[in-house]
Amino acid sequence: ARLLAAAESAVNARYAQANRPVRAHLDADFARIFAVQGRSSDAVQRLSRSVEAGWIPDPPAILTDLALDPPLALLKGDPRFEQSRRKIFEYVRRERAELGPFPLAGGPTS
Q1: pLDDT in tens, 27-48
Q2: Is 69's pLDDT higher than 80?
Q3: Which residues contact 4 (CB under 8 A, 6 or more apart)?
Q4: Could you give the CA distance from residue 55 to residue 52 in angstroms, rounded to a whole number?
Q5: Which of 17, 27, 35, 48 is 20 to 30 Å from 71 by CA-CA measure?
Protein backbone atom coordinates (compact mmCIF):
# COMPACT_ATOMS: atom_id res chain seq x y z
CA ALA A 1 0.00 0.00 0.00
CA ARG A 2 2.87 2.37 0.78
CA LEU A 3 4.41 1.85 -2.66
CA LEU A 4 1.10 2.56 -4.40
CA ALA A 5 0.62 5.70 -2.30
CA ALA A 6 4.11 6.85 -3.32
CA ALA A 7 3.32 6.17 -6.98
CA GLU A 8 0.07 8.12 -6.71
CA SER A 9 1.91 11.02 -5.08
CA ALA A 10 4.55 11.06 -7.82
CA VAL A 11 1.93 11.06 -10.58
CA ASN A 12 0.02 13.84 -8.78
CA ALA A 13 3.15 15.99 -8.68
CA ARG A 14 3.72 15.55 -12.44
CA TYR A 15 0.03 16.08 -13.23
CA ALA A 16 0.00 19.55 -11.71
CA GLN A 17 2.67 20.72 -14.17
CA ALA A 18 1.67 18.72 -17.23
CA ASN A 19 0.11 19.85 -20.51
CA ARG A 20 -2.99 18.13 -21.96
CA PRO A 21 -1.26 15.25 -23.84
CA VAL A 22 0.89 14.44 -20.83
CA ARG A 23 -2.14 14.62 -18.55
CA ALA A 24 -3.90 12.06 -20.74
CA HIS A 25 -0.97 9.69 -20.24
CA LEU A 26 -0.90 10.40 -16.50
CA ASP A 27 -4.64 9.73 -16.27
CA ALA A 28 -3.89 6.26 -17.64
CA ASP A 29 -1.21 5.87 -14.96
CA PHE A 30 -3.73 6.92 -12.32
CA ALA A 31 -6.19 4.36 -13.70
CA ARG A 32 -3.65 1.59 -13.25
CA ILE A 33 -2.77 2.70 -9.71
CA PHE A 34 -6.41 3.08 -8.68
CA ALA A 35 -7.33 -0.31 -10.17
CA VAL A 36 -4.67 -2.06 -8.08
CA GLN A 37 -5.81 -0.13 -5.00
CA GLY A 38 -9.33 -1.49 -5.57
CA ARG A 39 -10.67 1.97 -6.44
CA SER A 40 -12.46 0.69 -9.53
CA SER A 41 -14.78 3.64 -10.03
CA ASP A 42 -11.89 6.12 -9.83
CA ALA A 43 -9.82 3.91 -12.14
CA VAL A 44 -12.50 3.70 -14.82
CA GLN A 45 -13.18 7.43 -14.59
CA ARG A 46 -9.48 8.25 -15.14
CA LEU A 47 -9.18 5.71 -17.93
CA SER A 48 -12.23 7.13 -19.70
CA ARG A 49 -10.85 10.65 -19.36
CA SER A 50 -7.52 9.50 -20.74
CA VAL A 51 -9.04 7.80 -23.79
CA GLU A 52 -11.37 10.76 -24.44
CA ALA A 53 -8.28 13.02 -24.46
CA GLY A 54 -6.70 10.87 -27.16
CA TRP A 55 -4.46 8.55 -25.16
CA ILE A 56 -3.65 5.27 -26.87
CA PRO A 57 -1.62 2.53 -25.17
CA ASP A 58 2.01 2.37 -26.21
CA PRO A 59 3.06 -1.28 -26.47
CA PRO A 60 4.94 -2.97 -24.96
CA ALA A 61 4.51 -0.85 -21.81
CA ILE A 62 0.73 -1.21 -22.02
CA LEU A 63 -0.80 -3.55 -24.56
CA THR A 64 -3.38 -2.23 -27.01
CA ASP A 65 -6.00 -4.53 -25.48
CA LEU A 66 -6.36 -3.02 -22.03
CA ALA A 67 -7.86 -6.26 -20.75
CA LEU A 68 -4.42 -7.86 -21.13
CA ASP A 69 -2.74 -5.27 -18.89
CA PRO A 70 -2.71 -6.82 -15.38
CA PRO A 71 -3.77 -3.70 -13.43
CA LEU A 72 -6.42 -2.69 -15.95
CA ALA A 73 -7.65 -6.27 -16.36
CA LEU A 74 -9.13 -5.86 -12.88
CA LEU A 75 -11.70 -3.54 -14.48
CA LYS A 76 -13.02 -6.07 -17.01
CA GLY A 77 -16.78 -6.26 -17.08
CA ASP A 78 -17.35 -2.62 -16.17
CA PRO A 79 -19.28 -1.11 -19.11
CA ARG A 80 -17.20 2.09 -18.99
CA PHE A 81 -14.00 0.05 -19.20
CA GLU A 82 -15.38 -1.92 -22.13
CA GLN A 83 -16.35 1.35 -23.86
CA SER A 84 -12.76 2.62 -23.51
CA ARG A 85 -11.49 -0.66 -24.97
CA ARG A 86 -13.85 -0.34 -27.94
CA LYS A 87 -12.71 3.24 -28.58
CA ILE A 88 -9.08 2.16 -28.64
CA PHE A 89 -9.83 -0.80 -30.92
CA GLU A 90 -11.74 1.51 -33.27
CA TYR A 91 -8.84 3.98 -33.34
CA VAL A 92 -6.39 1.18 -34.18
CA ARG A 93 -8.75 -0.20 -36.86
CA ARG A 94 -9.01 3.24 -38.52
CA GLU A 95 -5.25 3.76 -38.32
CA ARG A 96 -4.56 0.38 -39.92
CA ALA A 97 -7.10 1.05 -42.68
CA GLU A 98 -5.50 4.41 -43.38
CA LEU A 99 -1.97 3.04 -43.48
CA GLY A 100 -2.81 -0.09 -45.43
CA PRO A 101 -0.40 -2.99 -45.74
CA PHE A 102 3.29 -2.26 -45.79
CA PRO A 103 6.25 -4.59 -46.27
CA LEU A 104 8.40 -5.49 -43.32
CA ALA A 105 12.18 -5.39 -43.63
CA GLY A 106 13.41 -8.79 -44.72
CA GLY A 107 9.90 -9.97 -45.57
CA PRO A 108 8.36 -10.87 -48.92
CA THR A 109 8.08 -7.95 -51.32
CA SER A 110 5.05 -9.13 -53.29
Answers
A1: 999 999 999 999 999 999 999 9
A2: yes
A3: 33, 36, 37
A4: 7
A5: 17
Nearest to 40 by CA among 73, 5, 69: 73
The one-letter code for the residue type at 27 is D
Closest CA to 28 of 10, 9, 53: 53
State the DSSP string of 37-103: HT-HHHHHHHHHHHHHTT----TTTS-SSGGGSHHHHTTTT-HHHHHHHHHHHHHHHHHHHHH---P
Peptide bond into 60 cis (omega under 30): yes
> How far apart (Å, rounded) are the C-alpha atoms in residues 84 and 91?
11
- pLDDT(109) > 70: no
Q: 88 CB contacts (<8 Å, ≥6 apart)? A: 51, 56, 57, 64, 66
